């Protein structure tokens, strides 16, 4: 019997790294990560958008270059979140939602955040910016025995 499910690249990435430093509380296991509600939000259809519509936020994973002073290697989690938040246009979206979703420190320096396409373009000019990629969904096809 074949099963089809949707698993986001973001979830796969989170499960492939050690426990990340979360903007809220750091999950202690993969099971905890899977129990959290999905981070996807429906976006308005192109035909219904106008200049007065609120911005469309997407989840982006932003990779940072190592800091010249090396502080990123020994930084406490709160200081790391503050550093990552300082790179964002604001701490909250126009809807009042926290932008910073997760801070990473084990395999790379970076974070996941709610950003618009324009905000990501602006972030490219900030010191320490490395690269980014949007969260993408992939459909998993598996079989069970």
Write structural notes for this entry.
This protein has 145 residues and is an alpha+beta fold. It has a domain at 59-140: 2-Layer Sandwich (Alpha-Beta Plaits), CATH 3.30.70.80. It is built from four helices and seven strands; from the N terminus they run βαβαβαββαββ. It has helices at residues 9-16, 30-35, 77-86, 117-123, and strands at 2-8, 21-22, 58-64, 100-104, 110-115, 129-134, 137-143. It has a five-stranded antiparallel sheet. It has a two-stranded antiparallel ribbon with strand order 1-7. The protein is globular and about 50 Å long. 15% of the residues are buried. Mean pLDDT is 73; it is low at 1-49.
């Amino acid at each position: 019997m074949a099963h089809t499910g949707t698993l986001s690249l973001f979830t796969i990435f989170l499960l492939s790294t050690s426990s990340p430093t979360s903007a809220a509380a750091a999950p202690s296991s993969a099971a905890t990560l899977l129990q959290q509600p999905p981070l996807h939000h429906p976006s308005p259809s192109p035909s219904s958008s106008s200049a007065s519509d609120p911005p469309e936020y997407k989840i982006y994973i932003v990779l940072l270059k190592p800091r010249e002073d090396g502080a990123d290697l020994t930084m406490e989690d709160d200081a790391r979140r503050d550093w990552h938040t300082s790179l964002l246009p604001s701490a909250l979206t126009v809807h009042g939602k926290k932008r910073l979703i997760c801070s990473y420190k084990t395999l790379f320096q970076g974070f996941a955040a709610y950003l618009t396409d324009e905000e990501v373009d602006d972030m490219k000019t900030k010191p320490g910016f490395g690269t980014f990629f949007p969260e993408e969904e992939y459909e998993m096809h598996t079989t069970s025995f």
